[in-house]
Each structure stands twice: as structure tokens, then as C-alpha cells.
Amino acid sequence: MNENLWIAIATVLLVVVGLIQIIVLFSQKAQARIALTEQYRQLWNSLKKDWGIVIFFGKEHDEYYQVLDEVSINNLRKEIKKHRLGTQTIWALESVRNVCGALSEVSTRILQGHLNISDIYPIFGTEFLRQCRSLRKLLDPGYDSPHHIEDASILHNSVRTEMQDWLSYHDGLRRRCLILIDLLWAESARLEDLPPNDMKNAADSKRITGWLNRKRIFQETIRLNGLRKVFLALNLSRFLGRAEYVSLINWKGINKRKLSNLTMKIYLNDKLKRKIEDFDNFSNKCEEVFIKLSNSDSRVKEFQDINMLHICPGGKSGEDDSIIEVFWSSRLYEPEIEENHLKKLQETSPILFFHCNDAGDITISIYPAKVEGWQAAEDRIFLHTQLDPKKLNNYKFIKSLWNDFVAYMEVSRLDGNPTVFQKFKVFRLRRFNHFVNFTEKNHDT
Fold first, then answer.
1. How many Cα neighbours within 13 Å face the side chain of 354?
2. Which residue has the higher pLDDT, 393 or 260?
3. Is 364 helix (H, G, I), strand (E, B) or coil?
């Protein structure tokens, strides 16, 4: 064998060894990502209680859907009552510090290129994203602010403000948490994991905020790594376009026609479409209907002169199209002095509550009046469940609901003066309808 042949063989062997080394390096890097991902999975599982506390304060004080169980929620409400304005709530701040610290660390790993979003997404998934609206309220105080804050939620909102203040003092951590939410949402849009309506609403919003989100992630990546990671910054910035509508410069975005077809396929069969239309029609005219009932009812004239009747399509926030709330404004009664502070006590009105579920069926329930230091035997009475929305177009049916509402108001409020007929009506509701008591356990009569 001549010298040239040996050189050729040696060259081939060197190339093979180099390729093997490259494969080994990629394999080691993949193993390191797997180990790091498992570490963050265990960390996140250990923070479930803290996550529940954060979401509890991100929501309004009386919102129904929560992460924690009923026992934990009731314990939190007891702790809130111990809170005093002007003093820090250490346990709440510790929860937001633990949760947002973990989210910021994960976000930093992605921005540094140590982890891919596809590695992290299975840890959080849609369960996290379904609650991210509440988390955004803490991270961005201007996001989805309530139109009206009741006096009953002052302590709840005070603790939330403490959390928001803490996050505002740690702006880098807050930014990286928002970046992680944007990345997870873009990945879920790529995988089509979220309901089409949620994807559509988010894409509509990102017509305005999309470029701000892309700018934020680009600047944060450069801030952490310098210009040597400029291509990573560009790739991450472009990846957020997955959650936006497709365009000439964003050809990997959401296709409107495909999204519309997916929405129709999943939700809008003929029967469901008709149910939603019936509920929307009632939602549009419910204010006129209930004002007419109120003006024609002599039983509530005295109460109406003092308290304003509120008819809220979309709920108190006006942003949930699936609910309607009818209630009178809260009223103050005799104040008391507690620990040298004047404390204003108030009574909240009963609430007539309509909810349209994903199947288009209606649940109608009544929440009792609430007074600090006293509560009714039940937290809610279901008047109707699985009701076809076309019944809402029947004036006599709505009038019967109004009569139940007025009777329940007279029986449950402090200075109510119910008639014998109203007492019997409420007795019948409590005896023969489903009701819920969260303070002890669920009852079904």
C-alpha cells in the first residue's frame, strides 16, 4: 500500500471520529436538557399549593373556578379576614415569590438557549394557560382591570396589590414571566391544544400587542446574552408569531379559514348555534325586561328607591359573554369600631345568576344576600339546570324567576319583610331544589 492510500484511510478515520464526537456532544446536550427538564418538572409539582394561592388572588374574590380545592379556598378566605391594611401578608408574598421565581428561571433557561420551549411545554401545558389570565392580572396591573370594585373585596384586593407591588419592584422577573406565558401560548397555538375560540381571541388581541411581545423577547434575549445570541433572539421573536394571524411576514401564523372551520366543526352544530343565538338575544334585551319587571312590581318600590338595580350581561366585569347577573347595589349599615379603626359593614344583595355552558344549556341560580358575621344556610340555590335558552324568551317564565328572586331577597336580607307567600316560596326552593353549601360540604336535596 502506497503512502497516498494510508493518508486517505487516516483522513476517513479522522472524519468518522469527528462525526462520532459531534453525535456524542449532541447526545450529551440532549441528556442535559432532559435532566434539566425533569428538575423543573419536580420543582413545579412542589409549587402546586403556591400556584393555587397566586391564582386565587389573581381572580376576583368571589370567582367560582379555582385551582385549589374547597377546603383550601375556605382556609384562604379565613386568612384574608385576619389581614390588616398597612401590614404585609408574608404567606401570600412568599407564594408569588416562589411561583414567579420558578417561572422566571425557566424563561431564562430558554432565552439562554439551554432549553427549548418544546421541552418545557409538557410541564405546564394547557392547565397552566387556562389560568394565565389571572396570572397576567398580577404581572400587569393594567391588564383586565375590573370596572367596579366592591367594598367586600377590599382585603382581597389589598393582598393582590401587595403582590403586584412586589412584582413591580422585581421588573426583570416580571418581564421574564410574561415572556414565558407568550412562548407557551405560541407553542399551544402551534400544537392546536387550546379551544379555537381562545386562540381567536388571543390572535385578535395580538394584532395590537404582538409587536410589543416580540420586541420584549428580543431585547431580553440580547440583554441576557449579548449580541452573540442575536440569531436566537430573532428565532424566539419569530416563534411568537405562531399565536398571531398568518401574514406576508408571518407565514407560520394562524390561518383564519382553518381556525374558523375548526371552530365550526367543534362548537357550532345547528342546535348549539341556535342555543347560543337564543341566549345572546336574551342577553341583549335582559336589561329592558328586568327594568320593566322592577317598575311594575310594587313590592320592590321601597327598596328600589334606596338601592339601584344592576342588570349585567357579561357579569360584573362585562367581559364574560356566557353569564348574566342581576342584583341590587350593596348598602352600608351601622359601622362598628374594631381595634381603634372604624369598620364599615355592608350587606350585599342576592344575585340572580344565568350561565350558558359550552353545550348551550342554561343554569339559573340564586345567591343569597351576604352580611359580615352572618350567612344563609346555603351558598346558592339552583332554580333550573340544563335549560334550553329558548325558555328565556318567554316573559311569563322570566317573571316567575323575578318572583323567586324578590322572595329570596326579602327572606335573606337583614330588614326584609317577607309575606307568608314569599316565605312559603323560599321554603319550597330550599326544600325541593338543588343547593350548594361550600362552608361545610355539598348538599343535594
1. 29
2. 393
3. strand
